[in-house]
Amino acid sequence: MFPTLNVKKTGIALAVAMALTGCAISDAPTQAELAEQAFTNVTQPANWRFAKTPGDFDAEALGFSLPPELVVLIKEAQEHNPDLRIAAARVAQAQAALTAAGASLLPMVGIGGQAGASPIPTSSLSVDGLALVATWELDVWGKTRSSEAAAQANSLAAELDVLYARQSLAAGVVKAWLAAVEAQRQIALSRSLLNFAEQQTALMQVGQKVGRNSQQDILVSQLAVKNYRGQILQSEQAANSAQRALELLLGRYPAAEIAVASNLPAVPSPIPAGLPSDLIERRPDVRAAENRFRAAFYQVEVAKKAKLPSISLTGGVALLDNELLALQESLDNPVWGLTGTILAPLFTNGALDAQIEIKTQQQKESTVLYAQTMLNALNEVEGGLYNEQTLSDRYALVQAQVSDQQRIVDLERIQVNVGNSNQYQLYQQQMSLASNQLALLRLHNERLIQRVNLHLALGGMYPM
User: Fold this and answer.
1) Is the residue at 115 inside a domain?
2) Are 247 and 255 in contact (CB under 8 A)?
3) Cα–Cα distance, 133 to 356 (Å, whole number)
4) Is residue 229 classed exposed, middle or buried when 0-12, 13-18 and 19+ CB atoms within 10 A define those classes?
5) Sign of the CA dihedral with 224 first, then 226, 227, and 228 last
6) Is 11 exposed, middle or buried (0-12, 13-18, 19+ CB in 10 A)?
7) Residue 321 counted as domain residue
8) Burial class (CB in 10 A: 0-12, 13-18, 19+), 199
9) Relative to the CA of 123, which of 155, 316, 355, 395 has its CA 20 to 30 Å away?
10) Is residue 66 part of a domain?
11) Inside any domain, residue 296
12) CATH code (residue 60)
């Protein structure tokens, strides 16, 4: 079954083969070299254009405290969210692909046998026996190791995708929770507006009886009541939508039954943004795009090395029980042997060159995708920094308006008590105050949501 070979010659051949398989593979471009290829019209600044707070970015500092029940919800989402479970399955796939890619670096061993008699006459001798066979394609040129390097880069990219998905999911849970809290507060303030409008309508109806107010005045007041009732319905719809969105993130049935806090957290404190150069190391999606470029680079190497000869060794040992042993007394049992093969492609009708071109273009695509990912990250940070400052200025302005309006309400109440004004005017000022409070509530939540977006854009790791 196997030809016998000289042990010394076989050992020399194996030693040479092992030495050949130790050839190093090409190194992928560095991050700086990739950036030079990717950015054709961008010069990354040394500092953020719209940053106002100096200092290093703290990846665990969100700038406002999360209530304990919200932290529990984040953990629940990270355990049960379907999208995150899909991402985890993709990591397992990538890790299995890595194992498969490196499997041929070691010999493949199999066992086989033959037994029995055939009723059909043959020209060969009948051979019965059992054989253990090992085959090994030598990675002389580094093709298998390049394939393994590509799989390893893809596996790391998949893990980084999961990390970014976990961060994005945490941010999504916080934002959905904040939206639900804001909607509940809007309902409460809208009900206050409705109550004041109904009180005004009741006063007008009394005034109509004494000739002080007309039917037109009453209709205008009743129209305001209807508007505020519609505003309550709109806020209830927003609350229902926010609750269902939150439940979906948690992997729950979207029944809008989840309870949330009655008030928003305090406005966020300023956070330093660090340097643009640090973003590359912090953002998992940017690092994932970089690793996909590396995988594409090694796939080009695999395609190029497919044009080189392949060298394989096959060896094994067999136990025979047949006529062959009887005819050759000098033949030892068991029988063992080792053979080598070399195969070089001569004519493939352009298939190998086409594969090289395909992989090269995929590498160029991954370069552009890296640039796109990085530019999106830079835009998210610069936009977040600008929006945060603008929202802070707007919040301060509306907060001053609320303070002034509260002072007006207090003065109006004094005027009512001394008889220089009436209850209708007091209700009017209280409605103006509630309207300003609604605007302040909206800006308050916008600042919190914007902080969550900015924290995620800067590569923040909290909440996780």
Assistant:
1) no
2) yes
3) 34
4) middle
5) positive
6) exposed
7) yes
8) middle
9) 316
10) yes
11) yes
12) 1.20.1600.10
CA trace torsion 293, 299, 305, 310 (10° rounding): 150
Containing H/E element for 310?
strand 310-320
Biggest CA–CA distance in the chain, Å, is 135
Number of domains in the chain: 1
Residue 1 pLDDT more than 50? Answer: no
Q: The domain containing residue 334 runs over which residues?
A: 7-110+127-457
Can you say whether residue 332 is alpha, beta or left, with left for phi > 0 and alpha for psi between -120 and 50 degrees? beta
How many other C-beta atoms are found inside a 10 Å radius of the C-beta of residue 19? 10
Mention every residue, 6+ apart, whose C-beta is less than 8 A from residue 120: none
Whole-number pLDDT of residue 323 = 54
Q: pLDDT (tens digit, 9 = 90+) per residue, 211-255?
A: 888 899 899 999 999 999 999 999 999 999 999 999 999 999 999
144, amino acid identity: T
The pLDDT-based confidence of 448 (bands split at 50, 70, 90) is very high
Contacts of 375 (CB under 8 A, 6+ apart): 42
Question: Taking 60 as the threshold, does the pLDDT of residue 74 lie above it?
Answer: yes
* pTM of the complete model: 0.82
Interval 189-215: pLDDT, tens: 999 999 999 999 999 898 888 888 889
- CA–CA separation, 102 and 155 (whole Å): 13
Report strand pairing: 310-320 vs 335-343.
antiparallel
Query: How many helices and strands, by DSSP H and E, does the chain display?
Result: 11, 4
Nearest to 94 by CA among 10, 31, 148, 158: 158
Q: pLDDT tier at 336 (50, 70, 90 boundaries)? A: confident
pLDDT category at 315 given cuts 50, 70, 90 is confident
Rounded Cα distance between 252 and 244, Å, is 9
Identify the bridge partners of residue 463 per DSSP, sorted by sequence position. none
Higher-confidence residue: 94 or 258? 258
